[in-house]
Amino acid sequence: MNVTVDLAKLGIEQLSAMQLKASDSIAQGERDVILLSPTGSGKTLAYLLPILQKLDVSSKEVQAVVIVPNRELAIQSAEVLQLLTKAMKGFACYGGRPTMDEHRQLRQVQPQIVFATPGRLNDHLDKRNISIETIQYVVIDEFDKCLEMGFQEEMSKILEKLTAVKQRILLSATDAVEIPHFVNMNNVDRLDYLTSATVSHQVRVFSVHSPDKDKLQTLKQLLLSFGNQSTIVFTNYRESAERIHDFLTFQHFYSTVFHGGLDQQERESSIYKFSNGSVNILVSTDLASRGLDIPDVDNIVHYQLPDQEENYVHRTGRTARWEKEGRAFLLIGPTEEIPAYAISHTQEYSIPVTDSQPALPKMATIYIGKGKKDKISKMDVVGFLCKKCQLAPDEIGRIDVNNYYVYVAVQRNKLQEVLKRAKGQKIKGLKTIFEAAE
Fold first, then answer.
1. I need a surface site. Which of 73, 112, 387, 434 has the fewest CB within 10 A?
2. How many angstroms separate the Cα of 209 from the Cα of each of 221, 233, 234, 282, 424?
3. The Helicase ATP-binding domain covers which part of the protein (predicted)?
4. CATH number of the domain residue 215 falls in
5. Which range marks the domain in which residue 265 is found?
6. Tens of pLDDT along 36-65?
7. How many domains would you assign to the chain?
């Protein structure tokens, strides 16, 4: 099946050598494939493009499943598919919402590809919400995470059920995990683009020495020097992430926090606001270092030094994606030293003196209290903002339509004007809430 794809919607002019080689290997279909490639190198496209050409667009059954370790990666992978083509339908399945609701949506959407976390996929297969007989392709993304001990029982049950599978594709940014026998890889084509665990040459790495054990004041001065550039601040613990976020908020920075202790909507909201430019700073544990596709991150700050080199590489790999340049900063306390793995490529950095205030983000997020369940689409939102709120198309940013609500980014200097004009208005004939999601 020849499916037309639109790479331009992802801002891509041409595929990398890795993507071309992986696509060719998967497209041939004669062998199972293991693809090892660094964080940010575009592995999602590398498997999606050839699989799209293999599936029957006229079929209303699931033909491929992509197993991922967390809900964020499931959602983002499904969004990539949606941008690539309208010919194929995808659907993301994950915990934190009722299985019954997902089953109802599966019947409505009738996807050819499902992106799912292990536990939720196993549940759907057990309940026969997804036909086992039609699944021909299995992708395990971030397989080192999916095949960890906590997931192994679920993964074993899933793969045992999928007896009609023709090809298995495993992807990872690390080669640290032995593949269990139950994955049943046969005649494997192994594509290794890792070479070694190193930071991209497009990233400049700096050390910043703090006179205080508690490095908050040093972090504040560093962030002030960044202006409104986008920055991820990494910590080792949830409690630290919350404390830093609270401090930055008190200091009037536009910050949000992301870690495994938040509920689903809180995590999604944090990523939306950071990705759409409504906040400049994301404070996170290592949860944000893998899988999430957050474009155009200017700076990475290691507030707490990573325990292992692998974590350092993955964190730092959040910037300088798709051949762009970026910066990473190691905050070094009075009793700390630059880790041995970073010494060779780290320069000392002096924070420029500034008396400026925290910079305003370019965008602001508006919450609209209707969503997919109310038949609201992105075009409905664009039409409303242009006609009722008199915005120009280039004053509207990212739009995320969820089941029961919408997040939309608008230029910050237009926020109050939009809220004023939206008050009392209907979208697609429906009364709803329009408010700032700050």
1. 387
2. 12, 16, 16, 22, 53
3. 24-193
4. 3.40.50.300
5. 203-348
6. 988 778 899 999 999 999 999 999 999 999
7. 3
